[in-house]
Amino acid sequence: MRTFHRVALALVLLLGVGLIVFPLADGLPKKTQGVDNVQDSFRDAMSKEGLKTSREDLVTMQLMLKQLKAETLPQLGSRIGMNPEQTYAFLSARYDKVGAGLNQVDTIMPRFDHLVAVMEEQGPNFRKADEIPDAHLPNTAVTYLFLVPGVLLTVVGAAGLFFSFRGGRTAVPTVALSVALAVGVLMVGGTLATDEIGKTQAAEKMFDAFRPTFSEQGYKQARTDMDILEGMATQMQQQVVPDLAKIAGKSPEEYSAGLSSDFKDVGKGLVELPRILTRFDGMVEDIGKNIGSFKDADSIPTASKPVSQVPYYLLIPGIVLILVPGAALLFGRRSGNEGTASAPVSAAPQTSSV
Question: From what superkingdom does this record's organism come (predicted)?
Fold first, then answer.
């Protein structure tokens, strides 16, 4: 039975060393910091309220651009004797950024619509993954879910083996096995109670969905699209509206008020566009700043293995710690009981008769 105890203690020691080596060799501290960086940057945008605002802002832009192209510009052009084609040609020649925007909005806006749609779809997964390992702890705490049990198991496993080979009657090996069993219960119970399996599955879905977005190519495309929209909006407000107001013999404020009255979607868009573009620009820049962090997060546990495997790196050792030390303690106790029961009772000394 002592051999079984030693085998169990050796396994405890090896599991402890493995739990220490895995997160450090795999670069888990850096990777989990990448997760925190991404979550901190997009937590507001991926909240229910943030997603609602993004959708409303996108709709405002879409309606403004639709009315601008279908109604506003053709009517403004007709007032000075131009058909729609001539109006677009005139604007493109005189206002290069407005012309570039009008020519490309039909391809730019679907890309932003797709981005917002992916954000809306992945909002629940983002919020669930944001609670790894717990709603009150950062993702970097995941490293310590391996290190703390690993150090404890290494210490008790080594101590148990040392005193087991040292000989003599000592309770240290039994205590070491009991501690290992308790650690195993905590590892399994904690992983299941906090739903780490479900949370990492949500994170995996989110990584799959956003992988094209958090790439150099994805960022460059979004940055180019934003530059076109911002250039168009700025030139419209600083040059086109003042010039049209001058032609109409009105102040820019009076002319803008007239536009808002005649073309409500355009008027609303012109008022809200600076805020909307600033907000979307911030999201695009956050994407660019977090490309490296996203790659780190997406490589947990490795670049070729999904993050949904990570809970099993705690569950499987935990189950082993419950079964093997538990069996060693159970059979050790039975062996001790049997030994006590089978011990011979010495006969009482007989007095010889004189």
Answer: Bacteria
**Residues sharing a CB contact under 8 Å with residue 178, sequence separation 6 or more, in sequence order:** 325, 329
CB-facing half-sphere around the CA of 203: CA atoms within 13 A? 30
Contact present, 150 and 18 (Cβ < 8 Å): yes
Tokens representing residue 196 in the block: 């780490």
pTM for the model stands at 0.86
| Of 21, 8, 91, 27, residue with least CA distance to 302 | 27
pLDDT band at 340 (very low <50, low <70, confident <90, very high): very low
Domain segments of the chain as ranges: 1-46+137-209+297-337, 61-122+215-289
Contact, 50 vs 44, CB < 8 A? yes
Q: How far apart are CA 47 and CA 232, in angstroms?
A: 30
Distance from chain centroid for Cα 57: 24
User: What amino acid occupies position 32?
Assistant: T
Please report, as a single letter, which amino acid is at residue 156: V
For helices 196-210 and 172-193, the axis angle rounded to 10 degrees is 50
Structural element, H or E, at residue 222? helix 216-235
Q: Extract long-range pairs of 77-85: CB within 8 Å, 24+ residues apart.
A: 80/247
Q: Provide the residue type at 232 as one letter.
A: M
Phi/psi of residue 305, nearest 5 degrees: -120, 140
